[in-house]
Amino acid sequence: MSDDRIARRLVISGRVQGVWYRGWTVDQARALGLDGWVRNRTDGTVEIVMAGPADAVERLTALCEQGPRDARVDGVEATAVQDPGAAGFGQRATV
User: Fold this and answer.
1) Domain span at residue 76?
2) In a domain, 68, yes or no
3) Minimal CA–CA distance to 33: which of 51, 9, 8?
4) Could you give phi then psi for residue 25, rounded to 5 degrees?
5) Does residue 52 sit in helix, strand or coil?
6) Which residues belong to the active site?
């Protein structure tokens, strides 16, 4: 793994379910070459764990502050996490 590889967890609040936020996140993350996953949470938020080059992680974090066209993002909580490993990027089941 590259020295500049970082991992981050985001919890996005607002109108972020039912607006294609997860599918949009997968598209953005894959385009940026990131590893990780995205899922809905039963509290109405979306959770993302991502890892990759620091600039790509920063870029996806910035994109998530806006989200897809029909989303309304009220907040993005970001924390550093353990790298999930190089396994691509996909969706997980709601928790």
Assistant:
1) 5-84
2) yes
3) 51
4) -65, -45
5) strand
6) 22, 40
Q: Please tell me the distance from the alpha carbon of residue 1 to that of residue 33, in angstroms, as a whole number.
A: 13
CATH number of the domain enclosing 28: 3.30.70.100
Domains in the chain, number: 1
Burial of 12 (0-12, 13-18, 19+ CB in 10 A): buried
pLDDT band at 3 (very low <50, low <70, confident <90, very high): low
What is the rounded distance in angstroms from the CA atom of residue 69 to the CA atom of residue 51? 24
Q: What does the pLDDT look like over 31-79, one tens digit per residue?
A: 999 999 999 999 999 999 999 999 999 999 999 999 999 999 999 999 9
* Greater pLDDT, 87 or 2: 87
Cα-based angle 54, 89, 61 (whole degrees, multiple of 5): 40
Backbone φ, ψ for residue 28 (5° rounding): -65, -45
For 1-38, give the DSSP string.
--TTEEEEEEEEEEE-SSSSHHHHHHHHHHHTT-EEEE
